[in-house]
User: Fold these one by one.
Assistant:
Number 1:
Amino acid sequence: MNGYKFSINLVCGAGAAFLGLLSIAVIISAFLLAGNPAIAWLCLLFILLVVACAVLLVVFLRRKLVLFSDSLCRTIDDMLDGAAPPQQIHEEENLFYKINYRLARLYEVLRENRESMAKERADLQELISDISHQVKTPISNLKMLNATLLEQPVLEEKRQEFLMASGGQIEKLDFLMQAMIKTSRLETGIISLDRRIQPLYDTLAAALGGIVLNAERKNIHVSVACPKDIVLVHDRKWTGEALFNILDNAVKYTPADGDIQISVQGWEFYVKIDITDSGKGIAENRQGKIFRRFYREEEVHDIEGIGIGLYLAREIVAMQGGYIKVASAVGCGSTFSVFLPYE
């Protein structure tokens, strides 16, 4: 047919012409064979009824198709514009219902993808803003120290002091970048947890190893009650990272000669890890904020840290199907409870 396209109107016209010619041929044939005009008139009446029914059916179907095509175009336009979802057709299981149902499903998928992309974009902008805010101070300090060393003559003792200060700022930047890498890997799903059945005792011991030195410097007494026979499915490296972050916070905010107690209990579906310190405590209206990225209370800004440890801990535990609860009161210390599922 060389790509020639037939329109619906042309097809309907051709069909009507064919039926008309066929009807005339049938009437003439009936008249010639029967020789009775009454039979010819009956055939004509029958053919007219059939044609009328066919015309009504074609008109109904054409109207149905036109209305559905208009509705389909409006629905697609609304989907592209992010407007309201398609209206549901409450009919029997027919072609129109099936197409409308799949359009509704497509709309939901597109809407979820649009919302997911918007959330990722907002999270990325927030992360960039947080990073720029966090690196601003150490970079400014490094510029000032470097300019002082280059532009002004300083004594050797003072120069060593400046170099040590620069080293401290570089370490802070390095720690910040490592935290950023861990955060971005967690949020983008790059991290694949190696969850396997293994004892919690060894994971907790590795986390405790990272705080021993700082705890000894402040003469903080650390007590641990963890049964060696508790075994659960978890990623040792990242679970240890989460526990270390909570323990590191406990050491930072517990005064000298304080106490930190760690207790582990096996429940029916979860293992509960309580980390209790004798620090300053957290006000109730701030307990929901401490897990935010880069959140730090105003009165602790003089203590080393960037406010990302608890955020990482919560994300790591959540990725393994667990959760963290905090119970605290100002002046009475805090208890962070980590719940990890057995499987």
Number 2:
Amino acid sequence: MKKLFTIITALILAVATTIPVMAATYDFGGADPGAFGKPTSVEPAIVVGGPADESSNINRSKDSTIIPPPFGSPASNTPNAGELLTPYITGVTISNSSDYGSPAVINNGTGNGTPYYSESSVEPDMIPPTNITYSSNESASSNKFTLPDGMFYADDSIGTLSIPKLNVTGKVYEDESLESLSKGIGHFKSTSCWDGNVGFASHNRGISIAFGQIHTLTTDDKIIYTTEMGTRTYEVYSVSQIQETDMSKLQRTSDNIVTLITCVNDIPLLRWCVQARKIGY
């Protein structure tokens, strides 16, 4: 019996050693196309004269670099604020900048500085006029700015804006927040409250429609702005459409103007922009 068991065991081992081992099959193919993110080491090319949302005439060289204002300063959130990194590289000097982020002023050696605007973002006819007369204590290179200190009324407004042609009169509230626009007309906090360029925003429909028809204004139509500082009357000199992101019309100016901005019906990327110049000096 023991001999039989030994023979059977030997036969089982012989058979086991002659049967090939069947290995599992594995597929080492690559991932499906598009399963990986785009490479980040290659920057997309900027085509001059490309799509409308690309500016084709932006100076991207070192001489256009701006040093940002200090963190937490009044100008830290103001567009175009700061100092040029290399103010002398183009042969001009930069002066009259401030902590509130006024646009750079170019002094061409004649003593008459003028505000500098990017050619790519400002149409020639939208640049505030420079052929104006100044008093003895006011230079052409001075960009005016008035803070709202002492201008608030009991209802928290800072003034009243009237457009006689449109039969519109509305209270002006500090900042362009939805809360301000729900009550009337909002004042862009980055702009002056009285002297210089005063910027206003309002809805063109809905809760408050103060600026619903400003695109129908024409040259010499009047806009009246009243505050604790007094009352000024302005004459319209420009009505245009601008991009939603174009804030160049709100830059500081040396002359007294008002800038009104509202939406364009059913075109989210555009805004109506009306500018008017103060009558008299």
